[in-house]
Design a protein that fits this description.
There is one protein chain. 36% of the residues lie in helices and 16% in strands. The protein is an alpha/beta fold and 127 residues long. It has a single domain, classed as Oxidized Rhodanese, domain 1, CATH 3.40.250. The radius of gyration is 14 Å and the shape is globular. The N and C termini lie far apart (42 Å). Pfam families: Rhodanese.
Length: 127
């Protein structure tokens, strides 16, 4: 059974499953938000590819040979990206709830082009 087949929900992954897959290299995590949104806070392993530029990047994603998970703020734009990628023959999933759910899950984020990580809501404060 493949990594993504362990997660159900009409082609969706939980933020925790997407984070685990991106961290261990099982999948490619692509953030389809605009540049300002991405630099304000994104998943540490995410590649930035705004939705408007996705069509030009699909061949490169297909060449990766790994499943792709798309994320945006709430899951709407990434759902569109997922459909577009699937139509191009890519094994693609949507991160359910987007970065809003990612933050609620307490998962780490990075700012800028990968700078210091901010703690998620559930992480204990540093001492």
């Amino acid at each position: 059974m493949g990594f993504l087949s362990r997660f159900t929900g009409a082609g969706q992954l939980t933020p925790a499953a997407a984070a685990a897959g991106a961290a261990d290299g099982t999948l490619v995590l692509v953030d389809v938000r605009e540049t300002g949104e991405f630099t304000a806070g994104h998943a540490p392993q995410a590649r930035h590819m705004p939705l408007g530029q996705l069509a030009a990047g699909l061949d490169g994603l297909r060449d990766e040979g790994r499943p792709v998970a798309f994320v945006c703020h709430s899951g709407a734009r990434s759902a569109r990206a997922t459909r577009q990628a699937r139509a191009a023959g890519i094994d693609a999933r949507n991160v359910r709830g987007g970065m809003a759910a990612w933050g609620r899950a307490g998962l780490p984020t990075a700012t800028g082009d990968g700078g210091p990580r901010r703690r998620g809501r559930r992480d204990p404060p540093s001492r």
